[in-house]
Each structure stands twice: as C-alpha cells, then as structure tokens.
C-alpha cells in the first residue's frame, strides 16, 4: 500500500485552506497532511476551523518561499518520513472523494509513471474545465487543454500530457531522487511545466487522469489583469526555454514579449495595461541580468497556481 502525503501550501486565505483540508479529510484512504504556512497566518486558520490544527504536520519556514520553495520543504519532509507519493495542492483547491484513489490507480496501471494530474474544474462553475492536462504549442508555449469547455465526458481515459497543473500535482519520490525537486529560481508560475519536462526527459511518464476531479477558482477571472502574474509568467517562460536550451522557443518568446511591450506602451487602447506593461518590462530586464527567484520589486509574490 503506497504511503501518500498531501502538501497544502497555505497563503493568506484561512477559509480556503479550511475547505481544502475538509475535502482531504473526506478522501477514501486519507493521506497524511502537511501544511506549509507560507504566510505566517496559521493561527487564523485554526481560529476559523479548530479541526484544522489536528493530525496535521505544520511547517513554518518563516517567510514566503513561493510555490517552489514552500513545496520543496513539504517534499523534503514527506520523503524523509517514508512517503512514496506527494500530492501538491494549492490551498484554494477542493478535491473529490475518490480523486486520490483514481490517480493512484492510473499510476499502478502503467510502468514508470512519475507525475499525474486530475481534471481541474472551476469552483464558480463546477462542470466547466480549467485544465484537462497541458501541452506544448508553437514555440513550446505551455497551453491547457479544454479551458472553458463544459465537461460532458469528452476526456475518458488517462493520457500522456506535456505537463499537468501544479494546483493538484501528484509526484513519486523516485522522480525527486532522479531529477530533483522544483527549481526555486522560478519561485512561482511555470515551475510545474519545467518539472514535468525535466522528468519526461529522464524517461518518466506524465499522465492526465480525467476520472480524478478537483475544483479551483477560475484563474481566467483573476490572472489577466495581475502585474505579478504577467511578470512571473513572462520571465519564467524565458527561463524555461533558456534552461533547456530551446533556442528557437527562446527567440520566439523574446520577440513576442517585445511586441507585446511595444503595443502596451504605444497603442492608446492598452492604456489600462500600464501595470502589466511595467511588470513585463521588469520581467525582461530581470531575465537579461539573471535575476530570478522572488521579484525584488515585490515581496508579496504568489504562492498559488
């Protein structure tokens, strides 16, 4: 019987964290639960739901380590305590009762499966898809399948994916032992894309499992107007291409970013994009000078996907 740890990355939202923990308690064969308190507000979580403080391993790094650093601390604890699998979960995710069982069943049916992801649905519209696994488009752009579509059973069987969403990613300890953990240079965003790509290059399979369901807020409503998301997505897409020597992809992303920056700077219809324009300019500058990890201009970087 595989031993599984669920790693919940808590970031400033006690109500969301409590809902996530409640859904984990209802799982068939509940895993060990590790909470990484990236925001230093765990006492507020326990005040909202006293049950949150029970039977949980709490890790408190003392500062926001981002998605990468926070989850790496959880992975270190899980695998040093005998776990075979770790399930990385954003604190704003809730999971179906059989989600973990479905992921593990898919893993057991195929050799050398190292990373798996569920069908991610939207909390605001529970039958609408946010991610049905990821794939690489032109220029190695990381794209999500099925975004915005209604789920009517069109995804039926586990299939190989280019990557799976980091909001609910299951990883085997052997992957960490062979290729290492998340790259903390990314801090947040695009890190799961790079991790899956790195694992696949080492011969591991990455599977999307549509019978496993989780729910996550609709990022289409949250991310497009966020300077921080603009910054990390632009910088880290370039970092991914450079790290893996994808020269054509790197050239394409640089050209696309330069065109977008020019459009946001000079076309009147994009005046409302001033914040994103400035973030994109910073992303390009930081990439050029090799400044990675948490952005120096902002110490409230995201921890979630």
* Poorly predicted segments: none
Strand residue percentage: 15-25%
Number of helices: 10
Summarize model confidence as the mean pLDDT: 94
Largest pleated sheet: 10 strands, mixed
**Beta strands, count:** 12
Number of separate structural domains: 2
Structural class: alpha/beta
Binned, the helix content reads: 25-40%
Report the end-to-end length measured between terminal Cα atoms. Answer: 30 Å
CATH class of the largest domain: Alpha Beta
What features would you describe in this structure?
With 305 residues, this protein is α/β, with parallel strands linked by helices. Helices cover 39% and strands 20% of the residues. The strands form 2 sheets. Strands 1, 2, 3, 4, 5, 6, 7, 10, 11 and 12 form a 10-stranded mixed beta sheet that branches. The longest helix has 20 residues, at 247-266.
